[in-house]
Specification:
The chain contains 26 helices and six strands. Strands 3-2-1-4-6-5 form a six-stranded mixed sheet, with helices on both faces. α1 packs antiparallel against α6 and α7 packs antiparallel against α19. The longest helix has 43 residues. The termini are far apart.
């Protein structure tokens, strides 16, 4: 409990430093709608791609400890619960050192990205760990175990549309039981069936979202991208340890050191968790056309347990090796937490310095009546949230067709058009905004913006575009207003 409270305290401290980023600001905008009916209506219009339950929970936690902590509270609690549940599960089979390493596996892999993020992935991870804990101990405590299993399954599946993939590891365990013991595990199979119920309930929302975003999605399914991701590295480590285990032949030549004999259905379940991203890739390629690893952080639950099993067996059950592994995991998490805090602190300082810089720039006489057109949606949203003096002058001009032509995807542009229901800034289709602008315009171009290429390639704008600043990762331009008809006759 002390360790769990310490972890939660670290999460709160880092969350307080971290700025909201693009996806989180969408969560913030939906929860600000307030009423359940308004949030659901916005989701039907495609403003975001998460189930309504996630926003309902975030709406109630939003003001607990301040907005930057409150909106992230479901994720922080999810990771904290995951650590506690994994430790209890691992202690049934392993010595304390290995259990500590297992508990820290999800934070080591995902703390900086998902451990304090106002998105549903951390909450899904926590619910999945509750399901795994209940399923693991249902033989000792049938009522509590089955209740935890069912609640965890429904919670995970209700918080994210890909949450139904939690059925895969438990389905693998039920298949092992049927194959090896010729017994149908009805309780486990019932949980697998329940995993599909939330998506069936939200099928209209899912269909509407796929229809809007599948064509031109930024996150198209790709085996190459999956192999080069954190998941690819995780499998590489697991494969190396498996090779040591096979070569050493520990499974045949030594006695297992688990406190209890480890049933094969447990290994099947852990392997099923580890394979969730692979199974999901097939699903994404067949149906949704959208995939990113953050949807499937639940794989870390079974991955950590399976890795601990192979390490323990390879080390002949040595408790000392477990303590070394646990200390190594603790050091690794400390490094992840420290580097995350430093990175978020640097980003915070940079954004607020940029706010001051642009506020000063737009106070110059020639720009006092100008707008700031920002070509990167992430930057535009962050400035709108954190640059109070600039908020009314920031404009984002979405243009999905040109985004497809220049960037190869249009997900963000479509989403920003839909955000106009509750915008944190001015959002006007690009051509409409440019046609109506009668003053000199400041243009901010950076990594995910196509404005520079578009303006330079269009004769209508190229002659009116002038460089004000050029940095390593950004450029600032002045776009002069178009000459007015009849102006040259005076």
């Amino acid at each position: 409990m002390v360790a769990a409270l310490a972890y939660f305290g670290i999460s709160c401290a880092v969350a307080q430093v971290r700025l909201f980023w693009y996806d989180e600001i969408f969560t913030r905008q939906v929860t600000q709608l307030g009423e359940w009916s308004r949030m659901v209506a916005a989701l039907h219009h495609g403003i975001d791609l998460q189930p309504p339950l996630f926003y309902f929970i975030s709406r109630w936690t939003r003001y607990l400890g301040g907005e930057e902590i409150g909106l992230r509270l479901p994720a922080m609690l999810g990771f904290t619960f995951a650590g506690c549940c994994l430790y209890l599960i691992a202690r049934r089979w392993f010595s304390p050192g290995y259990a500590l390493g297992v508990a820290l596996t999800p934070p080591i892999l995902f703390f900086g990205a998902l451990g304090m993020e106002a998105r549903p992935y951390g909450f899904v991870l926590g619910c999945s760990s509750v399901a795994l804990l209940g399923w693991t101990f249902r033989d000792r405590k049938p009522l509590a175990g089955n209740a935890g299993y069912g609640i965890g399954i429904l919670g995970a599946a209700s918080a994210h549309y890909y949450g139904f993939m939690i059925a895969a590891p438990f389905g693998a365990a039920a298949a092992w039981t049927l194959f090896r013991k010729r017994r149908l595990d009805l309780g486990t199979l019932l949980g697998c069936v329940c995993a599909a119920l939330p998506d069936l309930w939200n099928m209209q929302l899912i269909g509407e979202g796929i229809a809007i975003y599948r064509n031109g999605a930024w996150n198209r399914p790709s085996w190459r991208v999956l192999g080069n991701s954190l998941y690819g590295w995780s499998l590489a480590v697991l494969s190396a340890v498996l090779l040591v285990y096979v070569v050493a032949g520990m499974s045949r030549n030594t006695e297992a050191s688990q406190e209890e004999h480890l049933p094969g259905e447990q290994l099947a379940c852990w392997a099923g968790f580890s394979a969730v991203p692979i199974l999901a890739m097939f699903m994404a390629r067949a149906f949704s056309g959208m995939f990113t690893l953050r949807y499937f952080s639940m794989y870390s639950l079974g991955y950590g347990l399976l890795l601990a099993y192979l390490v323990q067996q390879s080390a002949k059950g040595s408790r000392m090796a477990g303590y070394v592994a646990g200390c190594g995991a603790l050091i690794a998490f400390g490094c992840v937490a420290w580097t995350s805090e430093q990175r978020f602190e640097t980003e915070r300082e940079l954004v607020f310095a940029s706010c001051d810089h642009f506020t000063g720039l737009m106070e110059q006489p020639e720009f006092r009546q100008s707008s700031l057109l920002i070509g990167d949606a992430h930057v535009a949203l962050q400035f709108a949230v954190y640059c109070e003096d600039l908020r009314d002058r920031i404009v984002f001009g979405p243009d999905p067709p040109r985004s497809m032509a220049y960037s190869g995807n249009d997900t963000v542009q479509k989403a920003m058009l839909l955000l106009r229901e509750s915008p944190p800034m001015r959002i006007v289709p690009l051509d409409k905004f440019l046609r109506g602008e009668r003053r000199a315009l400041l243009v901010y171009h950076c990594q995910y913006s196509f404005l520079k290429d578009y303006f330079l390639q269009e004769p209508e704008y190229a002659a009116r575009l002038h460089v004000l600043e050029e940095g390593l990762t950004y450029s600032v331009y002045r776009l002069d207003p178009a000459p007015q008809p009849g102006a040259g006759e005076k």
